[in-house]
Amino acid sequence: MFDANVPVHGVITINGFELWITNTVVMGWVISAILIIFALIVRFKLKNFKERPTGFQNAVEMMVDAFEGFMKANGNPAIAWMGGWFFTLFTFILLANITGIFPGMRPPTADWPLPLALALTTFFFIQFSGIRYRGWKYVKGTYLNPHWLFLPVNLLGELSRPISLSFRMFGNILGGLILVTLMYQLTPFFARFVLPIPLHLIFDIAFGALQAFIFTVLSLTFVGLAAAES
Amino acid sequence: MNQFMLFLLNANVEERLFAMDAQTFRQLIPHLFNFIPLAIFITFILYKPVRNLLNERAARIARDLDEAETARTSANELKAQYEQRLKDIELERSIILDDARKLATERRNREIAEVKEEIAAMKTRAQLEIAAELAYVKEQVEQSIVDISTAMAGKLLTTTINAKAHSRLFDEAMAELEETIFKPAATL
User: Fold this and answer.
1) For residue B188, is pLDDT > 70?
2) CA–CA distance, A164 with A119 (Å, rounded to integer)
3) Residue A10 DSSP symbol
4) How many CB atoms lie within 10 A of CB A79?
5) Cβ pair A37, B45 in contact under 8 A
6) Do A43 and B32 touch (CB under 8 A)?
7) Whole-angstrom Cα distance, residue A26 to residue B3?
8) Residue B79 lies in a domain
9) Is the peptide bond between A103 and the residue preceding it cis, with omega within 30 degrees of 0?
């Protein structure tokens, strides 16, 4: 029952192209569904939002306002229009990381493909912002610096960013998952309801929130730096 | 929810914690196809509308604050104007009071002088009247003295004069009387 491995629920094969529908993929859909439902609720309630926010409206406004402040404090004003993307990134990773508190649920970020996919979107935005805001200067300063002969080294340096981003989060969440799983396996049945709670609090909630924050801040910083004039 | 949990728990578990094979990279496809539309959806359905709402409210609050600041400034200017006007009125009041006091003093002095003059005139008149009365009284007294003297002299004469002299005086008096009575009218 308590296993750190990634379950596979099915396999899709199209013209010999085999794609596993893993637990990570399903959990990604679940988290997306939760966020979509939340967004729709907010959208429908938006018309009734009052001048003085209370309750649910207050929570939503505080969340978005806090993220706006976070964007302004850590990011480049030029990339303020990407706020929605980073907001989704943060909330998605946060929800993904804390799903581990539910027994039997495996955090999808403890499977490398998901952090890698998220890091690749960051990588895309880094390149997009650099080229959009700095053009040839960015390409020259990033890939052909100090000479075009250094292109392979610079390319590797740039590619290391999404890899390091993804492995940082993957390693942290997987480490926590393994420790919690070991705790479940090593403790007697009656103690399983008490002893893993501190580990869940630390690894799933505290480290989960921390990793979501770190991933978002680093993404924001990389994209902001790429957009900034050197 | 229970069926979902059973679906998760009864899945065919591959003994796979981490691998760097083709399947790992193929897994990127569903994740990207899941996350990118989700990010676009969240951005346009949740984030931007709420952010716009907050920005509009912030702009409205900033506008209200500006208006309040403008109103406060104009109120302060108005207050300063009123205070200046009050000072002017106070100054004007003191000038008017001073003038009034001055006028009143002048008028009082003038009236006092007039009254004094009138009193002096009255006094002069009274003194004249007193002098006249005194003269009159003196005259009366003198007349009375003369009368009394005459009367006393008469009495004295009456007592001292003898029958002979009395007859002579009587005769003389009768003679004068006759002369006075029997004189023609033209001589009177």
Assistant:
1) no
2) 9
3) E
4) 22
5) no
6) no
7) 14
8) yes
9) no
Cα–Cα distances in Å, from A202 out to A163, A221, B7, B74? 25, 26, 28, 58
Q: Is the pLDDT of residue B12 over 90?
A: no
Contact list, B1 vs chain A (CB under 8 Å): none
Do the chains contact at A117 and B28, CB–CB below 8 Å?
Answer: yes
The domain total for chain B is 1
The C-alpha of A168 sits at a distance from chain B's nearest C-alpha, in angstroms, of 14
* DSSP one-letter code for A202: I
Within a domain: residue B34? yes
What are B12's strand-pairing partners? A8
Share of chain A above pLDDT 70, in %: 98
Q: How far is it, in rounded angstroms, from Cα A215 to Cα B170?
A: 173
Q: How many CA atoms lie within 13 A of B180 on its CB side?
A: 6
* B188, part of any domain: no
Give the domain range for residue B149: 27-183
pLDDT band at A163 (very low <50, low <70, confident <90, very high): very high
- For tokens 């200017």, name the residue: B77
Q: How far apart are CA A136 and CA B69, in angstroms?
A: 48
Q: Is the model's pLDDT at B6 over the cut of 50?
A: no
Cis peptide upstream of residue A146 (ω within 30 degrees of 0) = yes
Determine, yes or no, domain membership for B2: no
- Let me know: does A170 contact B17? Beta carbons within 8 Å: no
C-alpha distance from B88 to closest chain A C-alpha (Å): 47
Q: Does B48 touch chain A (CB under 8 A)?
A: yes
Interface of A with B in 185-214 (CB under 8 A): none
Which residues of chain B lie closer than 8 angstroms to A120, CB-CB?
Answer: 28, 32
Answer yes or no: do A91 and B42 touch at CB < 8 A. Answer: yes
A164 close contact with B: CB closer than 8 A: no
Q: What ipTM does the predicted assembly reach?
A: 0.90
Placement of tokens 């009394």 in the chain: B148
User: What residues of chain B lie within 8 A of the CB of A9, using their CB?
Assistant: 7-8, 11-12
Q: State how far residue A146 is from chain B, nearest Cα, in angstroms.
A: 33
pTM of the model: 0.71
Between the CA of residue A45 and those of A32, A38, A49, A63, what are the distances in Å?
20, 11, 7, 16
pLDDT at B159: 67
- Say if the Cβ atoms of A120 and B50 lie within 8 Å: no
